[in-house]
Each structure stands twice: as structure tokens, then as C-alpha cells.
């Protein structure tokens, strides 16, 4: 009860401070001439201060009391929003710190994987024949998603880490210009990414429903750690389904929170925006780590993989080894699941 009274007292005091402050600056007289506003006005500032300590006033301010302001944006009547300090502490503390470990960690893991396993080669003899894996539209959608994501990732990381890493290197002028254009790019490309993720979902969801043989794939770790082991897979294996669902779910969360942050207060309160900012950064960092691994395996990490998104045509032997069930579906040939070549006719 006592704290409620204190809170009210604080609220009244702050209202007084703000009204007097605004009055002195000359902005308030017009706004307050309306009869209804006068009726709700707090008593004069001096009488409110009687018997009240400064401590009581500031504790009211701390609790976010709403004062009176004459400008249209009534949010200016909140002098201090204390949750903002908690938000800032999490953003600049654990979020940034754990984030840097996650990002550093994925590069270390991939370097280790490359040293131990090397490039995953096509085991069998190449056939010289190719089959179509992705059509031009699928590849355009992939590169729209990928291109926008890479720029979004780099410019987003600059917002979180740039002042501690790039600013000291380049100096304030260059860093300010770079960050300004980076932020513009980030805001616009967010929409391209949302389009890319939506189309990715529509194009590939039917190939990414979890199936029984995905379990086998995971139990054998996809054969990633053992040469010559290729658990059967249809168009997408278990690992690729993880990439797909990360893109759709992670991308969805990034798109939703991102739109909220581009249009602040249009759909969300300040407290919600602070939460969305933290979710946006945390999900982005996890997704960047996942996608860095995806980029590795789709380029230097595996012989023959890039062609799928480059020309759209993959070497038949590559397809037999990595997507044996898919090859059977599209070519009608039977693949020997142990030796990964065309099974002899029965
Ligand atoms: C920028 C460099 C990138 C490269 C070199 C790359 C490469 C590839 C390749 C070669 C494939 C086809 C794999 C196959 O045929 O089995 C693929 C598929 C795919 N990519 Fe990317 N990609 C990149 C970026 C991205 C980004 C940024 C995203 C999403 C944010 C993404 C999402 C996907 C998805 C969902 C698939 C289908 C599932 C899979 O194959 O893992 N890619 N990518």
C-alpha cells in the first residue's frame, strides 16, 4: 500500500516537473488551454514538492510514470523507461559475448572438420552424365535468399559488433558512412529476404517432411565422418531438412521481428520492441552459424555439390551416392545402396 502511495506521489511530482518544464520552454500554453486538460491537471508544482523528498520523486520517475507533454507524441512524457537499461545490458553483455563464441565456434569447427575429413569426394567412377536437380526458378529463388541473407548478415553484424571491431580500424568518418549505407541496405534487403524465404517454403516444403529414413541418416551422421558411407536419401537428406526448416522458421522469426523494428511503435510497444531486438539478434547469430556450415558443405566441402545451384545439373554418380532414392524416382534406374552404382538388371 505504502509503495502504491509513493508511486502516485512520484507520478504527480513528475507530472509537475514536466508541465513546468514545458511551460517554461513556452510550448505548453496552447495545449493546456483546452478545458478538459485543465480539469485533469495536477496541482501546482510547488505544493506537490512539499514534504516530498527528491528520492521519492526519482523513484516515481524510475517506475516509468507518465508525465504531461504538449507535443503530439505522448511517449515523450516518460522520462525514464528503466527496462531500457536491462535491454541494453543484455544486448551489450551476454548476447554479444555468447554470440561471438557461437560465430567463432562454427569457423573453428569447420576448420577442424576440413582438417580431419578433407573435401568429401565422389567415391565411385564419374559417369560424365548429368541430371537436372534444380530448375532456373528454384536457383533464382535460392540466390535471392542467399544473396540478401549474406548482405543482411554482414550489415547486421556491423550494427552489433562494428563499433568494437571496425570503428577502431577505419576511424569514425569511414565507419559512419559505411554503417549508414549498411543500415539502408539492411532495411531494404529484409524485404527481398522475406520474399526469398516465402518462395523457398512454397517450392520445397513437400520434399522436406521428416521421414523414417531420415532417422537412419542421422544415426549414421549422414556418412559425414566416414568415407564411403552414404545413407539413402530422397531429394533432401536429414541434414538438408534441418537447413530448410532453419531457413523457414529462423527466417520467419527474423522477418517478423525485423518488420516490427523497421516500423517502431506501429504494431508494438517499447517493451515488445526491446524483446524483438534481442530475439532478432540471437536468432540471426544462430542462423548465420548454421548457414556458414551450409555454405561450406555446398561449396568447398563437397565435390559436385555446387553444380546443383550453379548450372542446376549434377553428375549422376554424385546423385547416386548422396540421393540414391531420388535418383531411383527421377530416372527409374535402381541404385545399389551399398556400392552406389546402377544395380545390375534382374
Ligand atoms: C551464399 C552461399 C551459398 C551457397 C554456396 C549455397 C549452396 C547451396 C547448394 C549447392 C545447394 C544444393 C544442395 C543440393 O543439391 O543437395 C543449396 C541448397 C539450399 N540452400 Fe544454399 N547456399 C548458399 C546460401 C544459402 C542461404 C543464405 C540460405 C538461406 C538463408 C540457403 C538455403 C538453402 C536451402 C534451404 C537449400 C535446400 C536444402 C539444402 O540443400 O540444404 N543457402 N545451397
List keywords for this structure.
single chain; 346 residues; mainly alpha; Fumarate Reductase Cytochrome B subunit; 15 helices; 2 strands; 66% helix; 2% strand; binds protoporphyrin IX containing FE; metal ion binding; iron; Cyt_b561_bac/Ni-Hgenase; heme
Spell out the blueprint of helices and strands.
Layout: H1 2-25, H2 29-32, H3 35-39, H4 45-49, H5 54-62, H6 83-117, E1 130-132, H7 136-165, H8 167-170, H9 172-204, H10 212-219, H11 238-262, H12 270-298, H13 306-309, E2 313-315, H14 316-322, H15 324-331
Antiparallel strand pairs: 1-2
Helix pairs in contact: 1-5, 6-12, 7-9, 7-12, 9-11, 11-12, 14-15
Protoporphyrin IX containing FE binds next to helix 7, helix 11, helix 12 and helix 13.
Describe this structure in words.
The chain has a two-stranded antiparallel sheet with strand order 1-2. The longest helix has 35 residues, at 83-117. The chain is 66% helix and 2% strand. The chain has 15 helices and two strands. Mean pLDDT is 86; it is low at 1-39 and 43-47. Helix 6 (83-117) runs parallel beside helix 12 (270-298). The protein folds into two domains: 2-77, no CATH class; 83-331, Fumarate Reductase Cytochrome B subunit. The protein has 346 residues and is mostly helical. The N and C termini lie far apart (88 Å). It binds protoporphyrin IX containing FE. Protoporphyrin IX containing FE binds at residues 133, 142, 145-146, 149-150, 200, 236, 240, 243-244, 247, 291, 294-295, 298-299, 305-306, 308-309.
Amino acid at each position: 500500500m505504502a509503495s502504491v502511495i509513493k508511486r502516485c506521489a512520484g507520478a504527480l511530482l513528475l507530472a509537475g516537473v514536466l508541465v513546468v518544464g514545458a511551460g517554461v520552454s513556452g510550448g505548453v500554453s496552447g495545449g493546456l488551454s483546452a478545458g478538459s486538460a485543465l480539469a485533469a491537471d495536477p496541482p501546482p508544482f510547488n505544493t506537490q514538492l512539499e514534504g516530498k523528498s527528491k528520492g521519492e520523486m526519482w523513484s516515481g520517475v524510475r517506475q516509468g510514470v507518465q508525465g504531461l507533454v504538449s507535443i503530439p507524441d505522448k511517449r515523450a512524457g516518460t522520462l525514464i523507461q528503466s527496462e531500457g537499461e536491462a535491454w541494453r545490458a543484455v544486448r551489450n553483455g551476454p548476447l554479444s559475448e555468447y554470440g561471438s563464441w557461437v560465430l567463432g565456434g562454427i569457423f573453428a569447427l569447420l576448420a577442424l572438420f576440413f582438417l580431419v575429413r578433407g573435401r568429401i569426394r565422389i567415391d565411385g567412377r564419374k559417369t560424365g552424365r548429368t541430371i537436372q536437380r534444380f530448375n532456373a526458378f528454384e536457383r533464382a529463388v535460392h540466390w535471392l535468399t542467399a544473396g540478401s541473407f549474406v548482405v543482411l548478415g554482414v550489415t547486421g553484424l556491423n550494427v552489433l559488433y562494428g563499433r568494437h571491431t571496425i570503428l577502431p580500424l577505419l576511424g569514425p568518418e569511414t565507419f559512419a558512412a559505411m554503417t549508414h549505407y549498411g543500415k539502408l541496405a539492411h532495411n531494404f534487403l529484409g524485404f527481398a529476404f522475406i520474399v526469398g524465404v516465402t518462395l523457398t517454403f512454397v517450392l520445397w516444403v513437400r520434399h522436406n517432411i521428416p521421414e523414417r529414413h531420415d532417422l537412419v541418416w542421422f544415426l549414421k551422421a549422414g556418412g559425414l565422418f566416414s568415407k564411403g558411407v552414404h545413407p539413402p536419401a530422397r531429394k533432401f537428406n536429414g541434414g538438408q531438412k534441418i537447413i530448410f526448416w532453419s531457413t523457414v522458421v529462423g527466417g520467419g522469426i527474423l522477418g517478423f521481428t525485423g518488420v516490427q523494428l523497421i516500423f517502431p511503435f506501429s504494431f508494438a510497444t517499447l517493451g515488445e520492441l526491446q524483446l524483438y531486438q534481442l530475439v532478432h539478434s540471437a536468432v540471426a547469430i544462430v542462423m548465420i552459424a548454421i548457414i556458414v556450415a551450409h555454405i561450406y558443405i555446398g561449396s568447398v566441402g563437397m565435390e559436385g555439390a555446387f553444380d546443383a545451384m550453379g548450372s542446376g545439373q549434377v553428375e549422376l554418380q554424385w546423385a547416386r551416392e548422396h540421393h540414391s532414392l531420388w535418383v531411383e524416382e527421377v530416372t527409374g534406374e535402381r541404385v545399389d545402396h551399398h556400392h552406389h552404382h546402377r544395380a545390375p538388371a534382374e
